[in-house]
């Protein structure tokens, strides 16, 4: 498995393990099952549904977690939107750091995927 994908999944699983006492074990169980079946599904879903909001994440714009118009990835996959408003400032900062790490890894994968497709199109 690609190192970027492994790091992304490891960070996500660590995060879900840490938050399971608050949001429950369901997200952790689903995530582990999902990545066992298809290890790239989570990062590719993140790329499609969260990476377009990279600027909000980099700027730590809380509407990213609170706005209901943003895709439900943060709820469906990691459940954070349900608890974000209840967290203290230190916990919120920790979540931003984790999400920023996930954005960095997803951005790296996005660049790699697009460069490969550009190279393949150039040879066809």
Number of domain units: 1
Taking the sheet with the most strands, its summary is: none
Query: What string, H for helix and E for strand, traces the elements in order?
Result: HHHHHHH
The number of strands is 0
Number of distinct helices: 7
Helix content: over 70%
State the distance separating the first and last CA atoms.
27 Å
Q: pLDDT average, as an integer?
A: 83
Q: Radius of gyration from the CA trace?
A: 15 Å
Residue stretches low in confidence (pLDDT < 50, at least 5 long) are 118-124
List the quaternary state of the chains.
single chain
Strand content: under 5%
Shape: globular
Structural class: mainly alpha
Describe this structure in words.
There is one protein chain. With about 120 residues, the protein is mainly alpha-helical. It has one domain (about 5-124). It is built from seven helices and no strands. The protein has helices at about 5-25, 25-35, 40-50, 55-60, 65, 75, 90-124. Helix 1 runs antiparallel to helix 2 (about 25-35), helix 1 (about 5-25) runs antiparallel to helix 7 (about 90-124) and helix 3 packs across helix 7 (about 90-124). The protein is globular, with a radius of gyration of 15 Å.
């Amino acid at each position: 498995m690609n190192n970027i994908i492994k790091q992304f999944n490891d960070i996500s699983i660590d995060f879900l393990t840490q938050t399971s006492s608050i949001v429950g074990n369901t997200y952790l169980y689903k995530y582990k099952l999902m990545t066992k079946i298809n290890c790239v599904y989570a990062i590719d879903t993140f790329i499609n549904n969260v990476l377009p909001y990279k600027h909000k994440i980099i700027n730590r714009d809380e509407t990213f977690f609170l706005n209901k118009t943003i895709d439900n990835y943060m709820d469906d996959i990691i459940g954070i939107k349900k608890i974000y408003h209840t967290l203290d400032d230190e916990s919120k900062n920790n979540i931003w750091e984790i999400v920023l790490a996930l954005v960095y890894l997803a951005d790296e994968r996005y660049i790699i995927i697009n460069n490969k497709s550009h190279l393949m199109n150039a040879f066809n």
